[in-house]
Amino acid sequence: MAVAPAEWSDRSKELSALLARSGLGDRQAFAALYERTSAHLFAVVLRINKDRAQAEDVLQEVYVNVWRAAQSFDAAQSQPLTWLTSVARNRAIDSLRRKQTEPQTQPAPFNDDEDKDVYDDVADDAPTPLEMLSRASDARALAQCMEALSAPQRQSVALAFYDGLSHAEVADQMRQPLGTVKSWVRRALLSLKACLDNAVLRDGRARGA
Amino acid sequence: MDYSRPELADRLGAEYVAGTLRGPARRRFESLLPGHPALRGAVQRWQDRLMPLTVTLAPVTPPARVWRRIEARLGLRPAEAPSQAWWARLAFWRVLSGIATAATLALAFIVASPPPAQAPIVVVLSAAAPADQPNAVTPASFVASISADGRAMVTRPLLPVSVQADRSLELWALPPSGAPRSLGVISASGSTVVRRGQVLQGTSALAVTLEPPGGSPSGAPTGPVLYVGKLSS
User: Fold this and answer.
1) Which of A183, B15, B72, B139 could in theory staple to B21 by disulfide, Cβ–Cβ 3.0 to 4.6 A?
2) Does B179 touch chain A (CB under 8 A)?
3) What is the pTM of this model?
4) What are phi and psi of B142, to 5 degrees?
5) Judged by CB atoms within 8 Å, which residues 35-74 of B form the interface with A?
């Protein structure tokens, strides 16, 4: 689903330029990149590792990593926000395995979010993560494909993805056998893939591609 | 296991990106990534698919100390002075010992050596991946030698560089922040002498871009960056 740079949103182009300049050692660009993206990445990390002090450490590691790896960011291959979010998620998940205590889980969070409209415009001028994504239609298609899942499938995938829970932890949380949960997650991911691939095809046809 | 099998790569990539691949399996998978393009491709595609899920999370502004720690870790700004008495601070003793060492070295230098000849500064420019025009120029590197007084520079390709007849190579001085400064068009086949006042002043890197003949008409780079080299300070 790589998107040609010509189709990128201005926000996404801006992030790409900031990343490229950070790769050349530009401190001001790196500071601007942090300013634009840290609140989103902190939200991602904090949802997975709920210990605030640890989440701050993780965020610090993420940006230290980004500064060092900025030169290897390939705008032709990935979107800047996707790349940054992946780095943050991987670090956050890694921080869980070092934790001695059981992760504290909160009751099924996805249902709370269901009423929110993903594409609502936000009043203030700060770029929303949606605006920073190269194509808002990606998020829209994904939200629609999530809707199409069965409720337990959707909940199991949300607990795994948003909260960083393992299969066993999702099973605990949903009070279901491990095997059942594993198959929910797997089927949910396969359905999402098929649904998104269809959406891309429809999108392509709509543009006359 | 044959990791180039599409179904296997896809399943592992999905579990890795969704976060359900955990523990030793996750570490093993990460160690396989560099050597397996099929796995990297699957991960890339699943990241593109699933990362948009995170846009629904309400942003949480991290406390200011996180940025200060990042700056300190990367040496972007000197570490913040802790609230301790000055004599208890490590930094104070480090600086003091640094000054003492420098003074000793300076003295030894003055006593022991005649004024040294100033050596030129050499910057190696390596190929930057040209995303748009992979075939325009063969991958090669430039070397730029700058006279010690910073007033003149000689650029030379290390390998033959082929540039389309209707294109020029233009050299830029990149400041730590702000707009690049043109240092003029350089030759793809031989040495070019660049004389531009203080070449190095406020410059943190050099870059070569592909431009229309005679160089960028606007004074700002328009073409892809072909070569980049940092000045080590």
Assistant:
1) B15
2) no
3) 0.60
4) -105, 155
5) 44-45, 47-63, 65-67, 69-70, 73-74
